[in-house]
Amino acid sequence: MDRAFEGLEQTYPIVDDILIAGRTIAERDVRLRQSLQRARERIMLKPETTLPCQQEVKFFSEVLTTDGMKPDPEKVKAVHDMEVQTSKKESEGYLGQTDQKPLEVVFKKPLHAVPLRLQRMRMRLQIYDADVQFTPGKDVPVGDMLSNHFKDTPNNVDLSLDADIQSYVHMVVSNLPVTDKKLGEIAKATSGDEQLVAVKKCITFGWSEVIQDCTTFQEFWTSGMS
């Protein structure tokens, strides 16, 4: 994009967005015609996404207006909505001085051994070759405050990973070295085994941290918590 519009005055392409500015309508129109001519030679534009003659426009986390530039309210809403800290501990948390070292261990475990509440995060990150390393908060120049102090997502926003999880499960099941008939027999036998039904429930909803709660299947408890 930068090369396609290189040399055109007051024309600012970023990724797949283009901002064309002018101090007057006539000046803006000249820039627009030049940009359209250049695009005709190299770029395909979508008329339905074009916003001509705007006095105010959002452009990469900023709102550009006739009075100057200001942050996009949607991008800073999480900061505005934060609760006021009331203690030293809370203030340290806002500065990013929190202990996230357990995550380093979590990423070294196989997916089935990770607590259910963290499995979705692991699922989303499986497409990356990630190496998680812990850095103490005191050594982080800019604390990642929003990762520790965030507002709950509205109920009407669906952030579920059901489709991703189902795809992963399908991939695993489809590659099992057993026939569909044998897999059905295993599932039927499992559903009729009281001990395995209890283990399945723990795998689905999380393992108890107290072994005494798992008296009927204690031999599985160590593997489930590892």
Protein architecture, described:
This protein is mostly helical and 226 residues long. Helix content is 43%, strand content 9%. The protein has 10 helices and 5 strands, in the order E-E-H-E-E-E-H-H-H-H-H-H-H-H-H. The longest helix has 18 residues. It is elongated. The mean pLDDT is 76.
Taking all residues together, what is the mean pLDDT? 76
Shape verdict: elongated
Distance between the termini: 50 Å
State the low-pLDDT regions, or none: none
Task: Decide which structural class fits the backbone.
Answer: mainly alpha
Q: What is the strand arrangement across the widest sheet? A: 3-4-5
Strand content: 5-15%
Domain count: the total is 3
- How many DSSP E strands? 5
Residue share in helices? 40-55%
Rg, Å, rounded: 27 Å
Order of helices and strands: EEHEEEHHHHHHHHH
Blueprint of the fold:
Elements: E1 11-14, E2 17-20, H1 25-42, E3 56-59, E4 62-65, E5 68-71, H2 73-80, H3 88-94, H4 102-106, H5 116-125, H6 145-148, H7 162-174, H8 180-191, H9 194-205, H10 218-225
Antiparallel strand pairs: 1-2, 3-4, 4-5
Summarize the entry for a quick read:
The protein has ten helices and five strands.
Record keyword descriptors for this entry.
226 residues, mainly alpha, 3 domains, 3-stranded antiparallel beta sheet, two-stranded antiparallel sheet, 10 helices, 5 strands, 43% helix
